[in-house]
Specification:
This protein has 603 residues and is mostly beta strands. It contains nine helices and 28 strands. The chain has one domain: Porin (Beta Barrel). Strand 24 and strand 25 form a beta hairpin. The two termini are 19 Å apart.
Length: 603
């Protein structure tokens, strides 16, 4: 059920996976035992996996999540392209890794490739920016990130390493493309895991292989054992490679303009309505071809600064493993900014006072990755004599970027209204950053327990809770953050709203406090048939209160995942899973229930 469990990660209700989890074996590897060759002091080990699978939509598109009435113009392409029962992904995927070592030195390389027949060839009902909003034709991945394309093959990890013993202390040094092995075994993202980028596009395929979901960066990493129980490690990343998301128009994309290749911010008549003094509504296809009805995309800003961090880990005998961490890094997720290219809203400038015919909008947007985010974290994990595992993690960021409410952003920029009305009066060359920085804290607590024989199999139950807090967040009558979709709520005491309740309510914006829970139960049945193990499972996800700054919690949102995994002789696998989504007044994926089936082979 790997694909389904991660299917809705952008909305914060999936199971994040990082390279660190793989390194510390907190997540079951998707690979086999591998093949090994050795000659004297030289050794080569090769592992891999192949998989085939499909994902089908199980809900009809919701009116409230597709209509302009609810402010969904910029968030609905992926929803409009698929009906209930449609295949949204049918893919083949391969992953291969090789570890070649000679004495204390080695080279580690991995590569992955995939082909998604549905995304490449299936006609869709609405279209997207890259395919020109041509309904009845397949989507296009032109301009997409290399990891988000419908088919591709890329190298993943590629680094050299050495094991040394200065003064009798074990030292590991790695140089090249790699992920950082920092981890707490949590399924709630946003804490320590943020030092690694993630391949969300891979996670959303039915064939997703755990090791293929990382986005390694060029890094120098070293770990030194100071004593038998105390170790220190540090890293320096030389280049930012951000997380990869599914491109616009695909089923699990909830933004029509944000990802690479999705290069126009559609206005659907809003500026033309202001010019004409009467309501004008246009289709996405009409807006795409009218310079007065979209904001063009400029070059994304990807920083080149070094990123670094260090940690100290102490194994207290009979108690557990303690970790203390610090990192200074660039955001792995992009935020939207807008650059003014002229005074007023329109070009040429005289058009703003009715003395010329307008030819376009005096702005372009770009996606940017905020830099110098500082992370401080500590964690603890242990396993009790009865097999119960317990973990805790606290993380703190004194300068976390938090995005402005998008509807307020655009209303202020193009109409001079709302809490950000000042943006319409900013000069040529002004860059509206799109975010402010805040102190944020996060606490994750979790436990797992094996119950032994229950209903004829070995049962395991895992549960965790996550809490997120934004320090000194202003009231919504000053400025509002978050709440993608659902338009702009009324602002000011005299403001009126006649639209749907979810759009008019002063709700759904980021709150100071948010929390939720995740529970998973599974029963492993060994040798149901000779060599065949079956593991049915049920996962329950519930966001209890508040709206988190990173989308991980949205009050009232829930998901249930019912699945069964089969493993034949630790080589052949199959997964069948059903994901049910719903709940929450501001849940962009409430209608994205899915059925997934996949088969694979590990070697």
């Amino acid at each position: 059920m790997a694909g389904l469990a991660t299917a809705l990660l952008s909305a914060g209700i999936g199971t994040p996976v990082t390279a660190g989890e793989l390194v510390f074996s907190d997540l079951k590897s998707g690979l086999g035992n591998g093949m090994q060759w050795q000659h004297e002091d030289t050794r080569l080990q090769v592992k891999g996996a192949l998989a085939l699978g499909t994902v089908r939509r199980m809900d009809d598109p919701s009116h409230r999540l597709t209509s302009a009435e609810y402010g969904m113009n910029l968030f609905n392409d992926g929803n409009l392209n698929y009906k209930r029962g449609d295949a949204v992904s049918t893919s083949a995927e391969a992953y291969l890794q090789a570890d070649l070592s000679h004495r204390n030195l080695g080279v580690f390389v991995s590569a992955k490739g995939w082909y998604d027949y549905t995304q490449k060839h299936q006609d869709v009902g609405h279209g997207s920016v890259p395919n020109g909003y041509r309904s009845g034709e397949p989507l296009s991945d032109s301009g997409f990130d290399s990891l988000a394309r419908f088919s591709n093959a890329v190298f993943n990890d590629a680094y050299v390493y050495g094991n040394f013993q200065p003064a009798g202390h074990d030292l590991l040094v790695r140089l090249g493309d790699q992920a950082i092995p920092w981890v707490t075994p949590t399924t709630i993202s946003g804490g320590l895991q943020a030092v690694n980028a993630f391949d969300w596009a891979a996670a959303r395929r039915a064939t997703s292989i755990a090791e293929a979901r990382t986005v390694p960066m060029p890094t120098l990493y070293a770990k030194l054992a100071l004593t038998e129980n105390l170790s220190v490690d540090a890293f320096n990343q030389f280049e930012l490679r951000p997380s990869a998301y599914s491109g616009c128009g695909t089923f699990l994309s909830t933004s029509d303009y944000a990802q690479p290749g999705c290069n126009q911010f559609i206005l659907n008549g809003s500026v033309m309505s202001a010019i004409a003094g009467r309501p004008i509504s246009t289709t996405d296809g009409q807006a795409l071809n009218n310079p007065l009805d979209h904001v063009a995309r400029g070059p994304d800003h990807r920083p080149g600064n070094n990123q670094y961090g260090a940690s100290l880990q102490y194994l207290w005998k009979d108690v557990g493993l303690f970790g203390l961490y610090f990192a200074d890094y660039s955001s792995r997720e992009a935020l939207t900014q807008v650059m003014r290219t002229g005074p007023g809203v329109l070009t040429p400038p005289a058009a703003n006072v009715g003395q010329a015919t307008p030819t376009g909008v005096a702005a372009y947007y770009q996606r940017a990755y905020p830099t110098r985010i500082r992370l401080y974290a500590l964690n603890f994990k242990t396993r009790l004599p009865g097999g119960t595992g317990i973990y805790a993690e606290y993380s703190y960021r004194p300068n976390q970027p938090i995005a402005w409410n998008g509807a307020d952003f655009i209303a202020g920029l193009l109409a001079g209204s709302g809490p950000m009305g000042y943006l319409s009066k900013t000069p040529t060359g002004y860059l509206a950053s799109g975010y402010d920085r805040f102190h944020v804290s996060q606490l994750n607590l979790g436990a797992s327990h094996p119950f032994g024989q229950v209903l004829g199999g070995a049962m395991k139950l895992s549960a965790e809770a996550g809490l997120k807090y934004v320090h000194d967040l202003p009231d919504t009558d000053q400025i509002r953050y978050g709440r993608p979709g659902f338009g702009s709520a009324p602002y000011g005491k005299a403001a009126k709203c006649t639209g749907p309740a979810a759009r008019c309510a002063d709700d759904g914006f980021i709150t100071p406090f948010a929390w939720g829970t995740r529970i998973k139960g599974e029963i492993n049945y060994r040798n149901v048939l000779p060599g065949l193990d079956l593991t049915p499972s049920l996962t329950l996800v519930y966001d209890i209160e508040g709206h988190a700054y990173d989308g991980v919690f949205s009050e009232g949102r829930y998901a249930q995942i019912l699945g069964v995994n089969g493993d034949y002789k630790s080589t052949y696998t199959f997964d069948l899973s059903y994901l049910n989504t719903g709940g929450g007044d501001y849940n962009l994926v409430a209608d994205r229930s899915l059925l997934e089936a996949s088969v694979g082979i590990r070697f």
